[in-house]
Amino acid sequence: MKRLAHDASATEDLLVVNMRQLVERLSRTHRPIVWAVQIGVFALSGVAAFLLRFDFGLPHHYVRHLLYALPIWVIVKIVVFRVAGLDRGWWRYVSVTDLLRIVVGNFAGSALSCIAILVIAPSGFPRSIYALDLMICFLGTAGIRMLVRMTAEATFQRGGGAPEKNALIYGAGDAGVTLLREIQRNSKLLYRVRGFLDDRQDKKGVHIHGVPVLGGRAEVESMVARHNVDIILIAIPSASGAEMTRILEQCHACGVECKTVPGLGDVIEERGLAGQIRDVAVEDLLGRKPVRLEQEQIRASIEGRVVMVTGAAGSIGSELCRQIARFRPAGIVGFEIAESPLFEIDREMQQSFPAVPFHPEIGSIQNRVRVDEVLQQYSPAVIYHAAAYKHVPLMEAHIFEAIENNVFGTYNLAVAAAEHGVEDFVMISSDKAVRPTNVMGATKRIAELLLLALQENGDRQPFSGAENGVSPHSRTKYVAVRFGNVLGSNGSVIPIFKKQIAAGGPVTVTHPEMRRFFMTIPEACQLVLQAAVIGEGGQICVLDMGEPVKIVDLARNLILLSGLKPEEDIKVEFTGMRPGEKLYEELSTMLEDTAPTAHEKIRIFVGNGMPEGGMVEWIDYLRETCESRDAGRLVVALKEIVIDYSPGTHLLKRVIEPRAQRAVSVSAH
């Protein structure tokens, strides 16, 4: 029996392949075939109308009427169908709208033919012939199109020899039927639908588009085994979380893969249901269209030049490498301290952009000797500085490390860039640098101030002393790019929410009123590239990111897009604000003035907010404080440098309480 089934399947596959090849050959001569078939239908309709009128016994004296009428019908209908565009469509995609147009075309063709026949043909023409011709011609022109569509769907629903997955569709409602039709029409969807599963007993045994409803939840295991099923497609957008859980548990118990279709209503109907069988896209949660930036200006600044990216294996750095490669640079230097991620981005770049040399270099921006080695070796014209410690609560607990990396590391790189003749230096900053309430934001603000100071002194004189290494004739252009949270980046809320949803919840949000600005990773990286073009040096570029988004709304939307219901299926819990966090992030400060640029979505902040005294003196003081590991002095120093910095309560308690305890201990003795 198995051998017979195999032979039958092989014969069926061969027949389908032959039919597909025939249809493809015919499609290459599509237009002449359409004309020939339509002319044949017009002629045969007229002959059939005469034969039916006279019960297939055409009297001799009516042959003359037929010979007059036949060329009139053919010529008039050719012109009408041509004017109506009915000879230019793809018949395999015929729809109800096309059938309505065919009705109108046939009525117009028959009416005009009737007038011509009354004028030209001999008298005594049978009037019933007109109605018969109209009816037969419509059935012929519409029927041939429907036949082509059914043949195309029958032959092209298979995957062209590629391996297919035997599938069951769970849900025989509107969503399931729509999904089946799209799978049958789209040869790229490699599913062979063996049947439906539905818990409504009255549907059992019914055939839908030739596919049977096999049973309900109780029959899942037996049907999976009987039809050798590889995957179950769950098409029940209205299912509750409990129902979905039961179905998923049963699918997993049978050892088959399962996917679901989210309940997206009109979007599903417009874009095609099968296209919604996917993971949730982060961009769907943004709530606005991503900004598209000017490409040609960016190309002019990158093409043919060596570009260096620090933090090249991070979420922003790696996307920068991909975006830069599109503009054909002479080479990309990926500078990264993390070995394994750098190895992965190196492989990706070689595979995706083989024509662009990618040079992976391991090193830390805190190591000035290593930075000099890399700059000396490759002589980059542009540096995009994405390396930074960015996790707010973690940096609150590691304030010395935050300073050493985000401040000292940036200083090393920026000064070395001027020494080695780098033309453009673009640093990625953060909206957390605006009136910072955490160490991470304060370090980013200090890094911004460093670039402003380097720009000013580089154009005039060195900071102070030759040891700083900044030439008085340096023309390096320093620009900072400040933007909000990046959806999908490492450590952002989206991956965390997804993991929590996958685990069944709860989804944790710090505060119901927590708001943030959001953008996509590609959008953020395009802004960074654009900043090098727009900024003239010593400036901070900021993207107009629209209105801030509530984090709790983002969480609830993600739950909904996952096919579940907030609070019913997945709980949302509020955990309280973490150390260093604030409810609202800002993009500008009262000390800064904004100026428009050539791009409507980018503005430039020109205020500097410099502290009293030179920046180098403050850098030296911060180094001394970090070496002494005096957290209290360090916090005070940050406050003096960044005037609007407001240290968090948790941090203040941490640095004040040990001092108070030591004071009590000394007084007790």
Can you give a write-up of this model?
Helix 2 (30-53) runs antiparallel to helix 3 (63-83), helix 13 packs parallel to helix 15 (399-419) and helix 20 packs antiparallel against helix 21 (631-641). The protein has 669 residues and is of the alpha/beta class. The longest helix is centred in the first third of the chain and has 29 residues, at 128-156. The strands form five sheets. Strands 9-8-7-10-11-12-17-21-20 form a nine-stranded mixed sheet, sandwiched between helices. The protein is built from 22 helices and 21 strands. The chain starts with a helix and ends with a helix. Helix 12 (339-352) links the parallel strand 8 and strand 9. It is elongated, with a radius of gyration of 36 Å. Mean pLDDT is 75; it is low at 1-9, 263-282 and 459-473. The protein folds into three domains: 2-156, no CATH class; 165-278, NAD(P)-binding Rossmann-like Domain (Rossmann fold, 3-Layer(aba) Sandwich); 295-486 and 517-545 and 588-610, NAD(P)-binding Rossmann-like Domain (Rossmann fold, 3-Layer(aba) Sandwich).
Tally of domains: 3
Question: What is the terminal separation in angstroms?
Answer: 97 Å
Fraction of residues in β-strands: 5-15%
The unreliable regions are 1-9, 263-282, 459-473
- Tell me the major beta sheet: 9 strands, mixed
CATH superfamily of the largest domain: NAD(P)-binding Rossmann-like Domain
Strand arrangement in the largest pleated sheet: 9-8-7-10-11-12-17-21-20
General form: elongated
- How many E-type strands? 21
Find the CATH topology of the largest domain.
Rossmann fold
Radius of gyration: 36 Å
Approximate helicity band: 40-55%
Assigned CATH architecture of the largest domain? 3-Layer(aba) Sandwich
